[in-house]
Amino acid sequence: MSAARALGDAQLQALLDEDAPCGDLSTAALGLAAEPGQAEFRARGAMVAAATEEAARLFELCGCRVHQHLPSGTQVQAGGLLLSAQGPAEGLLLAWKVAQNLVEFAAGIASATAAIVGTLRAAGCMQPVAATRKNVPGTRALSAKAVRAGGGTMHRLGLSDSLLVFPEHRGFIAPADLPRRLAALRQQQPEKKLVAEAGDLAQALELARMGVEVLQLERFLPQAVAELRTRLSQQGLAVLLAPAGGITLANAVDYARAGADVIVTSAPYVAPPRDVRVSISPA
Q1: Domain 9-111+272-282's class?
Q2: Residue 131, SS3?
């Protein structure tokens, strides 16, 4: 079953309009608009498919018929068919590059996420991999879909979905008043976990004693995470640890073994796009 689309028709049409605000000049001038044709998207290398639903809809919006597409989240080997479509050359050529760019971009994120998840599982670590909101602005919906396609989850989609108290918030609050403010925050939003970012061990322990339920550990090394876990246990403080900042495929297992409850990362967003080979030919 295909995954739900992250982008609606209006958003997809806007992408087409951006690429061809005055139509496809080359196809029109060559007199090819009505010529019947077919298109195939194939993976050049192993990847996790993502945004194939959006790609398929782009072809449909351009008057083409999509015969098949692999659902987002599917593991694909080199040469695997991702999508096939038929229709007039005008529609195929109009949808082609926008659809290819979306699939390559999203598959890069999905594949990078899957690599981190797979490495953790191979090491016997079951912590979830949660991607931050440090995506390219304007791409959050598609980026989040790609993360999920790769077996990850979202750490935070935006300011409206979770409570996360940063040092920047605390800078406006007198230290002596912080416990009262945090208690009031929990009272106002009782269904949300209270998360706070800590920059060092002392700050993390202080926040834990104030009732913070999840500590986001900014730029903690694995050794510091392990030390904090030990100190929390000694003091009887049950707090979830979510190290963030600088976590990649290379060190995710180190953080998991140090005592992290969730692996928070931005690394998938800077992964290179996966290469998709497109062939378009007469039908």
Answers
A1: alpha beta
A2: strand
Q: Is 276 helix (H, G, I), strand (E, B) or coil?
A: strand
Whether the pTM exceeds 0.85: the reply is yes
Sequence ranges of the domains in the chain? 9-111+272-282, 156-261
- What dotted CATH number matches 156-261? 3.20.20.70
Contacts of 157 (CB under 8 A, 6+ apart): 133, 140, 144
- Tell me if residue 37 falls in helix, strand or coil: strand
Cβ contact 179:173 at 8 Å:
no
User: How many Cα atoms are found within 13 Å in the side-chain-facing hemisphere of 174?
Assistant: 3
pLDDT digits (tens, 9 = 90+) for 18-68: 999 999 999 999 999 999 999 999 999 999 999 999 999 999 999 999 998
The DSSP annotation for 196-253 comes to: EEESSHHHHHHHHHTT-SEEEEET--HHHHHHHHHHHHHTT---EEEEESS--TTTHH
Assigned token pair, 150: 């790769």
The tokens 């339920």 sit on which residue?
213
Instruction: Answer for the pair 45, 78: CB distance below 8 angstroms, yes or no.
Output: yes
Q: How many CA atoms lie within 13 A of 113 on its CB side?
A: 31
Q: List strand residue ranges (DSSP E) for 45-144, in order.
A: 47-48, 65-69, 75-76, 81-88, 129-131
* Confidence at 2, pLDDT banded by 50, 70, 90: low
Read off the pLDDT of residues 211-254 as tens digits, 9 standing for 90 and up: 999 999 999 999 999 999 999 999 999 999 999 999 999 999 99
Look at strands 75-76 and 47-48 and give their pairing: antiparallel
